[in-house]
Design goal:
13 strands, 5 helices, RNA Polymerase Alpha Subunit, Chain A, domain 2, alpha+beta
Length: 219
């Protein structure tokens, strides 16, 4: 998984006045959890643009002014209700031998047969939560939707299991092709339906015209 470096300065005071002064200076108060004790620091608001305003998932390298570097992931972020400025950020520290739960974006590739025939692609889950060691965290989960026809869907249980665990039930739908008014029947499906009907006729009931002829001979 790609990583973003954020330069931070350790905070001496965590009171309201100190926090307000930081924000007025264009700094964002942050806290790193998960270690022996919380680490309070601040970072320039512009440093979060590539981390927050993107659909991609990233790990973070927090480079403190004392020379210490800490690996982490974004855990929570608070925005101002009116200006949307970042007010506070929480991070969770990563350790090489400890699994972490993280939301990973789903990347759909290919052109679905069902969509070409007029169906509608529904993305039920744009992100999936997984659990893995930091080294095994993927940038995204890729799904090829090319073979999907109208009515088909992809669930978590259909996805390959790699070096991580999905924190969803197997029947959780990730994406599906829904029927639309303009949708047309796939030619291959239509041919299968015709073949199935012909097979039923050969092995099943005698056509009505033949039945009438047999009854006439008996009379």
């Amino acid at each position: 998984m790609k990583s973003i470096t954020i330069d931070g300065s350790q905070r001496e005071s965590v009171g309201k006045k100190a926090t307000k002064a930081l924000r007025n200076a264009g700094q964002v108060p942050c806290v790193l959890y998960g270690g022996d004790k919380p680490v309070h620091f601040s970072a320039n608001e512009l440093a979060f643009s590539k981390l927050v305003y993107t659909p991609n998932a990233h790990t973070v390298v927090i480079a403190l002014d004392n020379g210490e570097t800490l690996n982490a992931v974004l855990q929570d972020i608070q925005f101002h209700p009116v200006t949307d400025r970042i007010l506070h950020v929480d991070f969770y520290q990563l350790f090489e031998d400890k699994e972490i739960a993280l939301n990973i974006p789903v990347n759909l590739v290919g052109n679905s047969r069902g969509v070409k025939n007029g169906g509608v692609l529904r993305r039920n889950n744009r992100k999936l939560r997984i659990k893995a060691l930091p080294a095994n965290l993927p940038d995204f989960i890729e799904i090829d939707i090319t073979p999907l026809k109208v009515g088909d869907k992809v669930a978590v249980g259909d996805l390959p299991r790699e070096d991580y665990t999905f924190l969803h039930t197997d029947n959780t739908v990730v994406c599906q092709i829904k029927t639309a008014r303009t949708a047309i029947v796939d030619e291959e499906d239509e041919e299968e339906g015709v073949e199935g009907a012909e097979g039923a006729t050969e092995a099943g009931d005698v056509p009505a015209t033949e039945t009438d002829d047999v009854a006439a001979v008996k009379e």
